[in-house]
Amino acid sequence: MAYGRIKPSDVHIGRPLQWDVFDEKGNLLLGKGHVISSENQLVRLLQLGMFADNAALQRSRGDVVIDETLPPSTVTLLLVARKKLETLFTQLEQATLEDNFVARMHEIVAHVEGGCSVNPNVALAMILLRQDGRYAIRHMVNAAVVVNLVCKSMGKTEDERRRIVAATLSMNFGMMDYQDKLKQQTTPLTPEQRAELEQHPFKSRELLANAGVLDELWLTAVLQHHEYIDGSGYPGKLKGDSVCQEAQLVSLADLFCARVTPRAYRAAVASNVALRGILLDRGKAFNPLLAAHFIKTLGIYPAGMMVKLANGEIGLVSEPTEKANCPIVSSFIGPRGAPLTIVLKRDTSLDLYAIRETVDPKSFAVHINMENIWGSAAVEYRI
Question: Is the four-CA dihedral 147, 176, 215, 74 of positive or negative sign?
């Protein structure tokens, strides 16, 4: 067993220990589940030297280690990004004190980039198919996926792309708990709630600056990610070129991912409908060129969208083709409504397999095995 030294930040007074604790010679001091009850007791133990299984320590800190001998998996990389982002947010004060917030954020950016590089279609499909876990966290990771892919489409440099992705991953740090609460609300926002909501870009920017973020592009994109070029946004009611391009990219991704996610007060909007709304808004709320790049990247029928074909089969959009309105669909439900024994790839440019309509996934109680559709890139390794 490899041991790692326990840091003061690993132990919380009054909470059960997450691992067995040993001294430097490997002798057991405290068992897993033991509760340290006082500050004095903790100080004495730390002075003595406390050690635990290194792998267990890494897991409790959110330092997820991916087995590099396994085939690369988009699903796993993005789930790791979600887990690390949640850990970083909960440890924000500690990261600020240890001056490692920016470095830890760039690790998460690298996971998002890696997941998109392995298979961009799986990365997009996760937005629609993996709507589990804490909403506030997965929403920012989902939006970061979209931003990363759109930036690549636009030819942004690697440095620019990483800075914009970092902004997307931290855009809502000033309202995380509030955002989770609002997602469950079934009534319209009160004026007081709206006022609090419109302050979160300021709060997010302040938290990031205090955590050691010095990059003005990052900070400005966070501050302006709810501004619209027609002046209808917040918190500054900025107009035109006063709203930076980076903030508009974050805003477009934020809007799309929010619309395709169900809320307590409304169902999810079909992704092609969400894109159509963005198309109609371009030139009003967003720069038309940016909106065009955004729609070009996601496609008319984004990966992961459930559709019904002309022959009656139901499947998921699995990859784009040169024809924007004719993607490849992986059918897994037959014309009579029974699950197919194997997934069938369908070219929707053919009349027999043309897309007839979009389908609400909740209308089918069928398990969607992403690995059957996208292979090893969709494998979820244990993390």
Answer: negative
